[in-house]
Amino acid sequence: MNVDTAELAKFSELAHRWWDVNSEFRPLHQINPLRLDWINNLSSIKGKAVLDVGCGGGILSDAMARAGATVTGIDLATKSLKVAQLHALETQTPNVNYREVSAEALAAEAPAQFDVVTCMEMLEHVPDPASIVKACAALVKPGGWVFFSTLNRNPKSFLFAIVGAEYVLNLLPKGTHEFAKFIKPSELAAHCRTAGLTLNATKGLQYNPITRRYWLDANTSVNYMIATQRTL
């Protein structure tokens, strides 16, 4: 399968902390409203069938379900999925379910079944990101939206996302990211075109370490998101 066992082990060790807003996952909790609003503004998810690829502990999946979508979250990290399922039960989150299955396997099982597909902060953790992009394209209905987020690969992103975030500010555990796996926007756009996805919008994510505030803008030099649609 298209999976890095070391990456799975790394996130499994932290699984019990997914929903602790002051833990290593604090940045995900802080950026979640920003990315949810961006997705929802481009493609309203209320009443839609949504797939969250690489859902982890369910932070985005849960939020999309509460926004009115019927959500399926998939991941290959067993412990993280159990945390997501438990959180959904404890908080009675409606219309969300989780499965331990790869994007490629689900694409073969249920092609063109979803109105919207999200794949956030996941591509930089797998051996073959192009395979994930292809699977996401196969899973979405014709005309449906697919959203990705990842990290740019350049000296600035190394300084900010690894040195700054992991070693100076301690926003993330050391070793969370591997610079060689970062993906330039041009590379991700090429993967999308090959998979039959049309690039519609991009957005950068910024952080101020003094105010501890995140915001979205046009600067995609470090963290960025892209919105695509499946070609009819």
Keywords:
single chain, 232 residues, alpha/beta, Rossmann fold, eight-stranded mixed sheet, 8 helices
Explain what you see.
It is a single chain. By secondary structure, the protein is of the alpha/beta class. It has one domain (5-230): Vaccinia Virus protein VP39 (Rossmann fold, 3-Layer(aba) Sandwich), CATH 3.40.50.150. Helix content is 39%, strand content 26%. It has 8 helices and 8 strands, in the order H-H-E-H-E-H-E-H-E-H-E-H-H-E-E-E. The chain has helices at 5-13, 26-42, 59-66, 78-91, 103-109, 129-139, 155-168, 185-194; strands spanning 49-53, 70-75, 96-100, 114-120, 140-151, 197-208, 213-217, 223-230. An 8-stranded mixed sheet has the order 3-2-1-4-5-8-6-7. The protein is globular, with a radius of gyration of 16 Å.
Strand tally is 8
Number of helices: 8
For the biggest sheet, the summary is: 8 strands, mixed
Q: CATH superfamily membership, which one?
A: Vaccinia Virus protein VP39
- Rg over alpha carbons: 16 Å
